[in-house]
Amino acid sequence: MAQQVVLIGTLDTKGEEFYFIKKLIENNGLETFVIDTGVQGEPYFRPDITAEEVAKKGGTSLKKLREDSDRGQAMEVMSHGASRTVTELYQQGKVNGVISLGGSAGTTIGTSAMRALPVGIPKMMVSTFASGNTEPYVGVKDISMMYSVVDISGVNQLSRQILANAANGISGMVTGEIPETEEQKPLIAATMFGVTTSCVTRAREYLEDRGYEVLVFHATGTGGRAMESLIESGFIQGVLDITTTEWCDELVGGVLSAGPNRLEAASKKGIPQVVSTGALDMVNFGPIDTVPDEFRNRQLYKHNPTVTLMRTTSEENKQLGEIVAKKLNASTGPAALFLPLKGVSMIDVEGQPFHGPEEDQTLFDAIRSNLDQDKVELIEKNTDINDDDFAVAMAEKLIEMMNDS
């Protein structure tokens, strides 16, 4: 069967443009499958899945959406319906790639459906919003955003070139070969921050020397969410979650939160995980003049012109310890928690600006009091987190658990 590209979009307002890229993709030797998400008018050409079918999968009827004339509700329903539709097609083996075009509504609906697909499936979104903040559309998935330059309103001299590039781009993604590695190594996910780099680098080198492949995620909110998503999707065989700092931002209100589900995926999947308290001494903000007024009298550290760090308090560390323990207590597979008793980051050691023995002690005591040590092994080391021995000990423990599994 020929490979198939799914087109998702509003055929009542962007039908001419979709028909243009549909023909180009088919000229490249691929099949197309069109999902109509237009609400107001009739489609420019006949789709494979009608807007009525999409609305029904979204929980209502196209007739009602038209009667209500509520744009926000229509976007929500069609986003949900398109996501369900494309998920079902993928489960049937009918999605080799997906492309969409649009402004705010089309981008919202198209990328919602794309985010429902696993990482690795080619995804192309041609959008008037692609030059701005794309995080709400991309999330943690591998969506290629192409800026349309002009509004998607007809096929003209400029848009013809841009749409052709998009059509040929998705065609190339689908038909291009992915080089195979000589061997498939077990995949390990690790988390890192600038202040835990030495630890993660040493642990990664140790694991790679022993035949493992390590994916390192920068603990910046999207990094943590991306890791959790890959774990949920079954890509990862072991987790070295050294840097759990994103919970500081979630708890206190920093800018790098990974959300309330951080530290859950490995526990639910039952895969081996070794966790530590990396960078739980800090909350992240942007330039120092962007720090909220309520925190201006706190202990701040200008990491660089665009990043300001705030030291966590004892009370916050107590809550962080309780959260980490609670998350790990839900583990359905092997889990270990390592405590670096002499500092949780590069700047939480003696002589550095965030050195806080009292705050760290509160964190460790909260973990000891709340961790179910019948389920989670607690290992304490009289070193700071960036000590080579600490890094190697975590790597060795993960290997041991993965071998036992």
Quick structural gist:
By secondary structure, this protein is of the alpha/beta class. It contains 14 helices and 14 strands.
Write the layout of secondary structure elements.
Elements: E1 4-9, H1 15-27, E2 31-36, H2 51-58, H3 62-68, H4 71-91, E3 97-102, H5 104-115, E4 123-127, H6 135-138, E5 144-147, H7 157-175, E6 187-192, H8 197-209, E7 213-218, H9 222-232, E8 238-241, H10 246-252, H11 265-269, E9 273-276, E10 282-285, E11 300-304, E12 307-311, H12 314-329, E13 335-340, H13 357-370, E14 376-381, H14 388-404
Parallel strand pairs: 1-2, 1-3, 3-4, 4-5, 6-7, 6-8, 8-9, 9-13, 13-14
Antiparallel strand pairs: 10-12, 11-12
Helix pairs in contact: 1-7, 2-4, 4-5, 8-14, 10-12, 12-13
Tags for this model:
Rossmann fold, alpha/beta, 405 residues, elongated, 14 helices, single chain, five-stranded parallel β-sheet, six-stranded parallel β-sheet
